Records
---
Amino acid sequence: MLVGALVINVFLQHTNLSRIGFRDALLFATLTWALTGVLGAFPVMLVTGVSFTDAVFESVSALTTTGATILTGLDAMPKSFLMYRQFLQWMGGLGVVIFVVAVLPMLNVGGMRLLKAETPGPIKDDKLSPRIANTAHYLWFIYLLITLLCALAYYVGGMDAFDAIAHSLSTVSTGGFSTHDDSMWHFQSHTLLAISNLFMLLGAISFALHFRVLNGRSPRLYWRDEETRIFLLIVIGLSLLLSLYLLTKQRYGTWESLSFAAFHVVSFITSTGFGAADLASWPPASGLFLVICAYLGGCAGSTAGGNKIIRDIITFKVIRREMQQLIHPRAILPVRYQGNEVANDVRDAVMGFMSFAAGSSLVLTLLLMLTGLDFWSSFTAVAACINVLGPGFGEVGSNFIPVSDSGIWLLSGAMILGRLEYFTVLALFLPMFWRR
């Protein structure tokens, strides 16, 4: 990480940043993620002795806050290395702020182009502050504050100091790495699962919204925000559905069904990926149910992955409008979000994103199947990586060791693709993108 920071610093010192344009900013963002992922792999190789391919996968998984792993025997590993993994995830959680602080103030293009490149969600022009650099400091403060509160809550809930700090780093970043092979169920505490639920949700709610709430405004803003309100309602609804399903299958009692269902719904929809049960032993439909949660995603502007709730909302409203238009062909039915009409270009961007996300999952699943994995394992492995979730099902239920080297490189690319939201990376490969 330090070497990566030095490389970036040298680049910034020897480059006329006032001449950097939108194309250069996108290239800088993508290469920084890729380069840091490679550099972060060397400590993994030194400590664990895994191959370079597997080490890059582990490093990229951490920096993109995916949480997929090829390691076993975590309980016996040095605590310094375990904390290194957790810290990589924490740093990756708000990696966008690094680019905001290092590059945006010098771009001389209004401060929004790189922010648009890495800020999740289709609505990219919601400025938090007249000064982007000051806003970045506020966001890091909020990120650190929530992390400290999470660590304190874990400690009070029964974790020792090391585990409390380590798991707070991967909870708020919605990364999902643990210091134990059994993940959160190592502690066998429903109290800790409830604490984790709270802070995973905070990590998956827009940090822009956290900024506004802590900037002297009412906490009611959380509920007034359409995306956050619908996100919380979806979490509650899906948790109740899964709980009822587990209860009817007589898997657990009433309280355990609700606790385990809520925890795993929150873990998957926020793309954290913590586990607290042997999901392979759950009723068959529960696996697909949780994968769907991962695709729904968290809120835009958060550390969560997935398609993002704001896109889900707009997609639903577009589909609903088209159905209404069939019944009332001459009716004027605008799509609205937060009471405002959604512009045509925003709608097009959302539908394009959703289509490309679905297509990418299909193509990557087919490519992974060509390496020898079965369909279910391939599909859930791709879903786990492209949504920066972490755990899959089938052969990749506990770790990604069964995946071949070519599959590991494919999934490493999928993690970066998903973390940078597809078009940021793919635009670099279009000839028209580089034409002046």
---
Amino acid sequence: MTENRPDLRVLVERLGGLAERRLAFDPSTEAARTRAVQLRDHAVGHLRVRAASLDAPLLILLLGPTGAGKSSLFNALAGRAASRTGVLRPTTRTAIVLAHPDDLETLRAGALAGLGSDQLESVADPSLPSGVALVDAPDVDSIEHANRELADRLVEAADLCVFVTTATRYADRVPWTVLGRVRERGLPIVVVVNRLPPAGDDRVVVLDDVRRLFGDAGFGAELEVTGIAEGALDPDNDALDAVSVGPIRVRIDALRGDAAGRRALAAEALAGSVAGVGPLVSRVADDVAHEQIDVAALRRTVATDHERELAALRADLARGTFLRDEALRHWQRYVGADDVTRLFSRGIGAIRGAIASVFRPSTAPVVEVREATTDDLVAVVRQHAAEAARRTATAWADEPRVGAAIGERGDLWGVSPGFDDRLRTRLEGWIASIGEDIAATGEGKRKLARGASIGVNALGVGVMLATFIHTAGLTGTEVGVAAATAFLNQKLLGALFGEAAMVELISRARARLDAALEATFAEERERFEALVPATDDLDGLALELRAVADEIRTVSPGSVAIEASIEPATPPLTVDRPDR
């Protein structure tokens, strides 16, 4: 900031960065994408280029409808037949740029970059002073869409617009579409009315009416309007008469010899261009804000679906009903269910005393029970994770922002590739942590454990099963393998570790398993979340765009800072600034 004035170059750089970020967030609708592309192209392709090269040649753009004499004016300013004129309509199908050879090279690499030879014809004239380039644009009323697009592209790049019309066609509707873009962009403009009555009231009436129409369209009351009389022609050069265009030519020649004046006009045009893009910045900010709301809703959907299925999974695990009877029977036989049942009535102390006789020296079915339990656990987790994915994919399928991705990626309708392997790795880590916890908890009962010949691995299976099957008020009379196994398992663990230690062991194991399952569901959820931006990022971008839009509203000619103030050596071309 300089003396509380916005630094235009800093503002342009910020705007360009925001425009690129906005487009990177993949706008969700075609209309929003069109606005985002327009903002990016204008901010990066024109504003940033022009702000970095205020000493580049000025682009003076001649616009007008077919037959208005635009190319004839171009030839008059060029001093020769540089642009074709004639009765074939539209006369000008490609843009023609006339400049010193060095200026042409600069413009081709800067303001006119990206325009091919089929769009832009270059006319190099070494005799011309450098600093100003004239561009004869395609006729603005051309029925060819490409011509209208090219004219609009040139409006983006120009520093000054010279609009050419006639005494009978100035109110035609079609050219006002392009003039509206000139006004929105804040481009300085001069109006040339060709084929006027040579003198008298009729001439005054036409010029006054032209000023009125431009004023009604949002151009200011100080609009400069130049009139050229009917028949003021130079047939040798297919041009307007040199005397009639004298005032315009004198001012352009003055700019060619006045570097400071050119720089001042370029800065003024840049300020107008920045100010003109303000409404578009606000609309893009609104687009981003609306998308933030939509994305937040999408993220809530995926979070809700996965949280619901994780809660259902927890309920299944708490009931233990997902475990197959075969594995539970293995464990029930191992702990010697018949002998242990007879001891329960004698109390925990008796169980501790008889524990060595209860556990037979036969090998515990650790591997069989652990693998079967892991298989059952993987199956039930996969079932709930797949259901969460199916629910989310179904809800997202009709959403414009993500519907295409859902349709193209079949993996989003179920668990992710490699799901089982990743889950098994997590469960192996969980089972290993149970063994480590048992070793630490049973440090003072080492003698008891050795006497029972049980071992950490077997006890680990007991704790693992206890996280899923537990008595919760059951008695030995309850029917079912799970209930019976739970009853025996808890009694034995309590006998070995004590009731409080057993509860802590099981509680810690259950908490670690829950953390592992939460991590698994988070991974599955992230597949969907990766398809949409973070809501905080969108919210932050919308706020930054609105802040820039507010700053742009303070921009007007003379209100901006670009290095130091610029004082032209000669008065710059008198132009009007459109009201905004």
